[in-house]
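Postdoc handover notes: sequence design on the structure in folder B. Input tokens:
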């Protein structure tokens, strides 16, 4: 009988759909498992990166379902965004139609791959039933003072009449028309994520199921700094400005101040001077020089250093960000590399105030800034004090004299959420000439996007739709103007995982009962490119929604898996590189099960995967071998079998070793590639045993059990062929709903393994124990060994890592 994979896959897709096999079945008395992959942006056909990401999650969801968990495994679409608007400009297709077509194509591919989603919970961020609640959350943030409006500098293309994101500015020009881009101040909406900065940082310690590098990336993005704000006097304005620094010990080395070009005091200082026009020219050319940290301009004004009464020049430069600290930095070129390079470029003085104990640095001999601790010199009463001590002494003096104060700063800035484009969630705000900024009443949500718009690429399309703009003030009834900015799409994706659990109910945003049962997400899977912004914003939204009583958790994702990229020829697959392998064409040739197995087998989930045509052919051959093995011995499932003999023990022993290995690989390590390898080895073992079936009838029962178990083991990985073989061997119901095989410890007890024990990477001892021993017991035995105690005595043990049945690695210092 031939393995006709196309026919088989079509058959089981239809059966699953008809039976609603993967619908979420919430049972309060049963343990839950919420498995989620980051939802896709429907910009076109599915690519191999999607196949890998979602198949990893599908294996885990299917495994947990077979283990008896109530599984929530939903799917949806991050459907708003600029690509749809660009498609409208290019081809004239409405963004909504373009998005719907892409969703349809992507959904067909997803269903073809057999992903076990509950399609009843499918959502789209562009659907009014979803973005109504996105607008509701915005209003709640506005009510709590976390959504606010202020002036902000943006990239502006005069030719297109629109705001551009940083990545849309190429060599100082507009990506679309190549016209020179300028900087313009516009009123923009922000979310005050900085109000949660300390909690976002502190709670990283609770995320034990996250990769360490992701946590480090988030910590660096939040960027907590403990330092001092020191005051300088602006001579012309007779006002003080504060400067944040983590190196107050260098205060006597300040030779200039640098303001952000967007600082509001810059215009006050240059007003009526020759620099007034020059500062506008400087701002206008910034998009082409934003990466040049040496670009700056003197503005003709001076400030007084209140520690030594010295007057120093005031500059503006792009390397100073208005939103960080106070928007002003003190230039200490001898002890900050960026300041050093800026001073050299503009011939500014370099003054050494920290020097090594063994030598006195000379500015004219320095090739780079001195950043280390040392001794304070040229620092008035603080001279000859160790710089570490000097930090505290200068801070004490500043607070005593009222010219400074200790301060904690964060690199994290408030989140600019305004987008001047059509295809996004409308911001539910009205502007009344009498009442000012007025939130749209909740009962009037959603504020719907108008369907009839002209998208030309020039300006914000919503500003050209009178019936959308004109409204009545809900407070006084006067004519009002509707906000035409739409929300950043990161807002849409910051809470979708919560909405899935409620199942698209119309009467409420989130069901308390559902939240309590399903949250947090047990495993979240997605690319490392989302390690900072998406995850940070999602954590922020969860904490806010907890504060207003909608959820009971403060961290949304218990475990995080960041999968690697799919490459070809060493480069990430990309249409621009011409190295794309189409999933649809691959499934036509090899089938969905073969494609699923390849993207799981070729590399561990967290590593990059190099595409190989030979590799997928090898997995396809494996499925043919499995098919033949089961079909050739199908009679074992239908005929009475003779009593079992002792000869069956070796089969059962090998089988239960495989069950244990596959279970550990999925449950504990997500090493799906090695799980597949163990099943391949089982097929090889059973193939070798085939010749014994005719002469040793006492092994028939064990052989049948091995085939039966193999089908269930393979189900999460290759569900189509598994369902077909399950049915052909006489079973009723879906194998997807059958229990996952369980290890019988009787067949593992006698097996002994040898553990190698390493300390800081060097082998120091070894010991033998029975296979599968509890990890904590293995650690106890390793640490109790005489040789190991000799090497660890008097030292701090930082970490003990157990690789099951192989090695114990101990890290000491």
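Designed sequence:
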């Amino acid at each position: 009988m031939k393995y006709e994979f196309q026919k088989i896959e079509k058959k089981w897709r239809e059966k699953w759909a008809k039976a609603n096999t993967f619908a979420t079945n919430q049972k309060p008395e049963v343990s839950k498992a919420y498995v989620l992959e980051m939802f896709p942006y429907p910009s076109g056909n599915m690519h191999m990166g999607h196949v890998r990401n979602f198949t990893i999650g599908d294996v885990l969801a299917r495994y947990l379902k077979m283990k008896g968990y109530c599984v929530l495994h939903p799917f949806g679409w991050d459907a708003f965004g600029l690509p749809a608007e660009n498609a409208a400009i290019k081809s004239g297709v409405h963004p909504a139609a373009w998005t719907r077509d892409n969703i349809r194509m992507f959904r067909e591919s997803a269903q073809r791959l057999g992903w076990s989603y509950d399609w009843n919970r499918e959502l789209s961020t562009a659907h009014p039933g979803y973005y109504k609640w996105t607008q509701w959350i915005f209003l709640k943030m506005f009510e709590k003072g976390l959504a606010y409006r202020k002036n902000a500098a943006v990239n502006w293309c005069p030719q297109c009449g629109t705001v551009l994101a940083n990545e849309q500015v190429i060599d100082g020009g507009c990506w679309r028309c190549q016209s020179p881009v300028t900087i313009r101040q516009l009123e923009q909406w922000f979310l005050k994520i900085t109000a949660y900065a300390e909690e976002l940082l502190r709670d990283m310690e609770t995320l034990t199921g996250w990769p360490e590098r992701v946590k480090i990336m988030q910590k660096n993005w939040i960027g907590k700094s403990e330092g001092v704000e020191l005051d300088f006097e602006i001579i012309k304005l007779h006002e003080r400005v504060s400067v944040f620094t983590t190196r107050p010990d260098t205060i006597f080395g300040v030779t200039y101040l640098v303001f952000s070009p967007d600082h509001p005091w810059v215009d006050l200082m240059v007003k009526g001077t020759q620099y007034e026009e020059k500062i506008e020219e400087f701002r206008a050319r910034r998009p082409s020089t934003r990466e040049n940290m040496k670009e700056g301009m003197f503005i003709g004004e001076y400030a007084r250093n209140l520690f030594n009464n010295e007057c120093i020049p005031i500059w503006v430069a792009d390397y100073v960000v208005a939103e960080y600290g106070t928007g002003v930095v003190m230039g200490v070129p001898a002890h900050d590399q960026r300041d050093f390079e800026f001073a050299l470029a503009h011939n500014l003085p370099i003054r050494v105030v920290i020097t090594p104990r063994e030598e006195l640095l000379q500015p004219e001999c320095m090739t780079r800034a001195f950043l280390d601790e040392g001794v304070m010199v040229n620092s008035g009463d603080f001279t000859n004090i160790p710089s570490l001590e000097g930090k505290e002494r200068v801070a004490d003096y500043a607070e005593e004299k009222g010219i400074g104060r200790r301060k904690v700063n964060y690199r994290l800035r408030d989140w600019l959420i305004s987008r001047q484009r059509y295809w996004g969630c409308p911001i539910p705000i009205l502007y009344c000439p009498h009442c000012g900024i007025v939130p749209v009443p909740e009962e009037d949500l959603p504020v719907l996007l108008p369907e009839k718009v002209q998208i030309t690429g020039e300006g914000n399309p919503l500003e050209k739709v009178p019936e959308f703009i004109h409204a009545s003030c809900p407070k006084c009834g006067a004519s009002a103007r509707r906000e035409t900015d739409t929300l950043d799409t990161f807002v849409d994706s910051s809470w979708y995982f919560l909405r899935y659990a409620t199942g698209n109910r119309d009467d409420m945003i989130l069901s308390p009962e559902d939240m309590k049962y399903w949250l947090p997400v047990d495993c979240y899977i997605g690319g490392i490119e989302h390690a900072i912004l998406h995850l940070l914003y999602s954590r922020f939204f969860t904490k806010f929604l907890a504060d207003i009583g909608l959820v009971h958790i403060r961290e949304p994702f218990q475990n995080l898996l960041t999968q690697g990229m799919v490459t070809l020829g060493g480069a990430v697959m990309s249409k621009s590189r011409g190295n794309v392998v189409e999933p649809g064409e691959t499934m036509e040739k090899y089938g969905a099960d073969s494609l699923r197995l390849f993207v799981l087998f070729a590399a561990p989930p967290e590593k990059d995967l190099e595409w190989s045509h030979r590799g997928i052919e090898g997995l396809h051959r494996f499925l043919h071998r499995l098919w033949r093995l089961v079909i050739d011995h199908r009679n074992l499932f239908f005929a009475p079998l003779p009593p079992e003999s002792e000869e069956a023990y070796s089969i059962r022993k090998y089988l239960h070793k495989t069950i244990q290995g596959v279970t550990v690989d999925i449950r504990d390590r997500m090493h799906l590639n090695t799980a597949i390898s163990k099943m391949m080895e089982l097929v090889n073992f059973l193939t070798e045993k085939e010749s014994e079936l005719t002469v040793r009838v006492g092994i028939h029962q064990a052989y049948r059990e091995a085939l039966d178990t193999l089908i269930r083991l393979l189900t999460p990985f290759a569900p189509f062929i598994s369902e077909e073989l399950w049915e052909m061997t006489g079973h009723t119901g879906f194998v997807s709903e059958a229990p996952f095989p369980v290890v019988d410890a009787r067949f593992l007890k006698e097996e002994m393994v040898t553990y190698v024990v390493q300390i800081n990477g060097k082998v120091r001892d070894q010991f033998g124990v029975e296979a599968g021993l509890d990890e904590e017991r293995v650690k106890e035995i390793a640490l109790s060994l005489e040789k190991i105690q000799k090497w660890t005595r008097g030292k701090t043990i930082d970490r003990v890592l157990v690789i099951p049945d192989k090695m114990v690695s101990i890290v000491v210092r």
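Context for whoever picks this up: The radius of gyration is 32 Å. Don't rerun without checking with the PI first.
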